[in-house]
């Protein structure tokens, strides 16, 4: 079944007098994981704030400070599966430039500037579209998106002017943060700091840059920017334009991820769950919308290399005392499987659990 051809959400909301969303965008029957708390304003707060990691203490702190951060990472990855990173070293002006560049891309007036990137799939180099590039779900998602492969080969849209240079600098900066975070996470598992990086060929990792555009929605209680899902890969780093909308599923409830300005929100992804044999869990999350402000989020998904076969790490299985809970699978094959399945509430991990 082909996804129906639809206009972008941006085009839809720019029509005068829009007071109701088209029926195709209404999640009339939400999945069990999406039924509770449809709006951003209604979502509850966690029993404590989402943990914060001071990146500078991991990379240049004293031995005692670094040891404390690694212990914190162990506890956070087990209990939360996500955290915010401050003092990460990526210049604030670069963060502002990448957000501005994404807004300019979505604002390009000439449809031909973006048309060549339409209708692409997950492993294509550049993809621009609306709702989803996977199989159709029960409703369309209230978002437009741009997805670009930025590593190991770098790609970029030709416009807006200067965007390519900003995207290259930003994605390189994110890779540096990911490298050091994976080093700390490796040590938190009792491994050498370079273990995950080497074992999963992160030097040649597939890095996907995804910009999401969520314009105001006249009926936010009926629509979703993205339904509940987990991400493939190892770590996703997310930033936004100051408008909240990311929600996490925690202890059976949806909570708001109120991201600190200038911070990266970091979440554990499916393949770190596989590698750790479930010790560190991939985070279920979704994007809700509002009726006042446009939200732009940037998610950078950092995975193994496409040809890496990911399986539970033998050194973490205790010489056979623990059974592998996941079947091995090449990362490329997992991505192709992932984008054959509906995003709505279904984790691709369920297909490789033993």
Describe the structure.
It is a single chain. The protein is α+β, with helices and mostly antiparallel strands and 354 residues long. It has one domain: B-lactam Antibiotic, Isopenicillin N Synthase, Chain (Jelly Rolls, Sandwich), CATH 2.60.120.330. The strands form three sheets. An eight-stranded mixed sheet has the order 1-2-10-7-12-5-4-3. A four-stranded antiparallel sheet has the order 6-11-8-9, with no helix packed on it. The longest helix is centred in the middle third of the chain and has 26 residues. About 3% of the residues have low confidence.
The end-to-end distance, rounded to whole angstroms, is 30 Å
User: From the helix content, strand content and strand pairing, which structural class follows?
Assistant: alpha+beta
CATH topology: Jelly Rolls
Shape annotation: globular
Write the layout of secondary structure elements.
Layout: H1 9-13, E1 52-54, H2 55-60, H3 63-79, E2 82-86, H4 92-107, H5 112-115, E3 126-130, E4 144-151, H6 163-188, H7 195-199, E5 207-214, E6 226-229, E7 235-240, E8 246-250, E9 253-256, E10 264-268, H8 270-275, E11 285-287, E12 295-302, E13 309-310, E14 329-330, H9 331-338
Parallel strand pairs: 1-2
Antiparallel strand pairs: 2-10, 3-4, 4-5, 5-12, 6-11, 7-10, 7-12, 8-9, 8-11, 13-14
Give a short overview.
The protein is of the alpha+beta class. It has one domain: B-lactam Antibiotic, Isopenicillin N Synthase, Chain (Jelly Rolls, Sandwich), CATH 2.60.120.
Keyword list:
metal ion binding; 354 residues; 9 helices; Jelly Rolls; oxidoreductase; 26% helix; alpha+beta; four-stranded antiparallel β-sheet; 14 strands; eight-stranded mixed β-sheet; Plant_2OG-oxidoreductases
């Amino acid at each position: 079944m082909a996804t129906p051809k639809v206009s972008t959400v941006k085009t839809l909301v720019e029509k005068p007098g829009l007071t109701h969303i088209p029926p195709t965008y209404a999640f009339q029957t939400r999945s069990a994981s999406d039924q509770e708390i449809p709006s951003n304003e209604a979502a509850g707060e966690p029993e404590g704030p989402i943990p914060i990691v001071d990146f500078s203490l991991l990379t240049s702190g004293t031995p005692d400070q670094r040891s404390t951060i690694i212990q914190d990472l162990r506890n956070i990855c087990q209990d939360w599966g996500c955290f915010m990173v401050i003092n990460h070293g990526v210049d604030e002006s670069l963060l502002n430039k990448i957000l501005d560049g994404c807004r300019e891309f979505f604002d390009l007036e000439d449809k031909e500037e973006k048309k060549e990137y339409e209708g692409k799939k997950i492993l294509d180099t550049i993809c621009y579209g609306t709702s989803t590039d996977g199989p159709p779900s029960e409703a369309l998602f209230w978002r437009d998106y741009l997805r670009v492969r930025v590593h190991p080969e770098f790609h970029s849209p030709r416009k807006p002017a200067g965007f390519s240079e900003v995207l290259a600098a930003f994605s390189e900066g994110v890779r540096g943060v990911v490298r050091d975070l994976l080093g700390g996470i490796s040590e938190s598992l009792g491994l050498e700091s370079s273990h995950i990086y080497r074992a999963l060929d992160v030097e040649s990792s597939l890095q996907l840059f995804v910009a999401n555009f969520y314009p105001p929605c006249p009926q936010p209680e009926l629509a979703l920017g993205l339904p509940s899902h987990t991400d493939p890969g190892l770590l996703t780093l997310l930033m936004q334009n100051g408008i909240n909308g990311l929600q996490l599923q925690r202890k059976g409830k949806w909570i708001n991820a109120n991201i600190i300005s200038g911070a990266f929100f970091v979440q554990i992804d499916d393949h770190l769950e596989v590698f750790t044999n479930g010790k560190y869990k991939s985070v279920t999350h979704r994007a809700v919308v509002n009726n006042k402000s446009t939200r732009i989020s940037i998610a950078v998904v950092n995975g193994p290399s496409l040809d890496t076969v990911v399986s539970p790490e033998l050194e973490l299985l205790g010489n056979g005392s623990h059974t592998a809970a996941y079947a091995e699978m090449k990362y490329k094959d997992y991505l192709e499987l992932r984008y054959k399945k509906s995003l709505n509430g279904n984790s691709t991990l369920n297909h490789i659990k033993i």
